[in-house]
Specification:
The chain is an alpha/beta fold. It is 36% helix and 17% strand. It has 13 helices and 16 strands.
């Protein structure tokens, strides 16, 4: 049995962590176990997880019903290829997703991660127009400050300047970017707010496959909450210009914003929708891209007569079983009341940050709380302070934010927010 020092040496010398350098001075904390909302470190310290492991572990860690679902599925099979074969967990999950997602989305393509779900959506849009005899429709319109993933196609529709992928600009497809809407959530969308999208669709619409947006909440690109009315007007404009509309609901799906899917705030249905993260309750990697009958029939009837994508681990039975159980746990609970509880606690707990001179904005929606600073955080300083105070938060840029598991108690929420206020005040 290797001792911990040896394991951590191997980690530091040989493992890349997300958006990090192996020569980084940022500490990496060794987690021994996790249960509920607590991460237990090797030294015995417990941290309240304010990140839901990047927004996915909505029911908490080591959930007995989630564990049981995987144990039962293991008795049958852990994996089987999806090419030419099928299985009950995938069929039942498909039936459930079609039932709970917006009407007219009636076909599902499974993949391994959110980034790939976006790649699939983009390929669907391009292949759709190719089948319609319009192969020149290959470009995408996207919002600045948007984030859609780290694979090449997904990177091409992330913000090219302030995003994380400017290094690759020379090899990425050139897309069309418009300013993010400045109308906040709960406010109307003015003519000025929607003008950039109107202009882009008028100028480039004939060569565009789709508009891709994160509805209501721009996630890793800046945690910005914008008007539902903008989403409504975007749907109308896409229809007028005969451009498909793709919603990236990877971060916002499954109740995080107070609706099961963020697009429900606007009562709008996209042509293609991507989901992931919380789909399996954070247990296994699984994502899905849903689309309409028109799109999948058109693709199937065009050349080459099949949709051109097929992951090795597509519709993995263990992941599908986890997703089925996670969705059942969510929809059978009073989840909206719970999200409202979390929202009120975040609003109350983060309110003192509004008085801090280093803070430029505080915003809360559903189970998301964001404190935006005037200057970028010092990660080497701020993360250890959070850990010392017994919470796990992972800020980025100017943003200190919290997206806790839905099972979090009011006391743990109060601890999270009070620590955020104290550490920010001291920064």
């Amino acid at each position: 049995m290797q001792d911990l020092d040896e394991l951590l040496r191997i980690d530091k010398d040989s493992i890349w962590h997300p958006y990090s350098s192996m020569s980084s001075e940022l500490p990496v904390y060794h987690v021994d176990s996790a249960a509920g909302v607590l991460l237990k470190l090797n030294n015995g310290q417990e941290l309240i997880d304010g990140m839901s492991s990047w927004w996915s572990v909505i029911h908490g860690y080591n959930h007995p019903q989630m564990n049981l679902a995987l144990e039962e599925q293991l008795k049958d099979m852990a994996h089987v290829m999806f090419g030419g074969l099928t299985h009950t967990p995938a069929i039942q999950l498909t039936e459930k997703l079609i039932a709970i997602t917006p009407d007219s989305l009636d076909a599902v393509f499974y993949s391994d991660s959110g980034s790939v779900a976006v790649e699939v959506a983009m390929k669907m849009a391009i292949q759709y127009w190719h089948a319609k005899g319009k192969p020149s429709r290959q470009r995408f319109i996207s919002l600045r400050s948007g984030y859609h993933g780290d694979t090449l196609g997904a990177m091409s529709v992330c913000d090219p300047d302030t995003g994380m992928h400017s290094l690759f600009s020379g090899v990425l497809p050139e897309q069309i970017f418009i300013e993010q809407p400045q109308c906040r959530f709960g406010e109307p969308c003015t003519d000025n707010d929607i003008a950039a999208l109107k202009k882009a669709l008028t100028k480039y619409g004939e060569n565009c496959a789709a508009l891709i947006i994160e509805p209501i909440v721009q996630g890793a690109g800046g945690m910005w909450f914008y008007s539902a009315d903008y989403v409504k007007q975007a749907r109308k404009l896409c229809d007028e210009h005969n451009v498909l509309l793709i919603f990236d609901e990877i971060a916002t799906g499954f109740g995080r914003t107070g609706q099961l899917f963020a697009c429900e705030h606007a009562d709008v249905v996209p042509d293609i929708m991507c989901i992931g993260k919380a789909l399996t309750g954070g247990y296994l990697s699984l994502a899905a891209t849903l689309t309409t009958r028109d799109i999948h029939v058109t693709i199937d009837s065009g050349e080459p007569g099949v949709f051109m994508h097929g992951p090795t681990f597509m519709a993995n039975p263990l992941a599908c079983s986890a997703a089925l159980t996670s969705i059942r746990l969510l929809v059978e609970s009073d989840w909206q009341k719970n999200i409202n509880r979390i929202q009120r606690s975040l609003e109350d707990g983060l309110a003192p940050c509004r008085q801090l001179t280093q803070v430029s904005d505080v915003r809360v929606l559903g189970g998301i709380g964001v404190v935006e600073l005037k200057e970028a955080v010092d990660m080497k300083m701020i993360v250890p302070k959070f850990v010392e105070a017994g919470v796990w938060l992972r800020p980025f840029g100017k943003l200190v934010y919290v997206m806790p598991p839905y099972i979090i108690s009011n006391d743990d929420l109060a601890t999270l927010t009070s620590v955020m206020v104290a550490v920010i005040a001291d920064s």
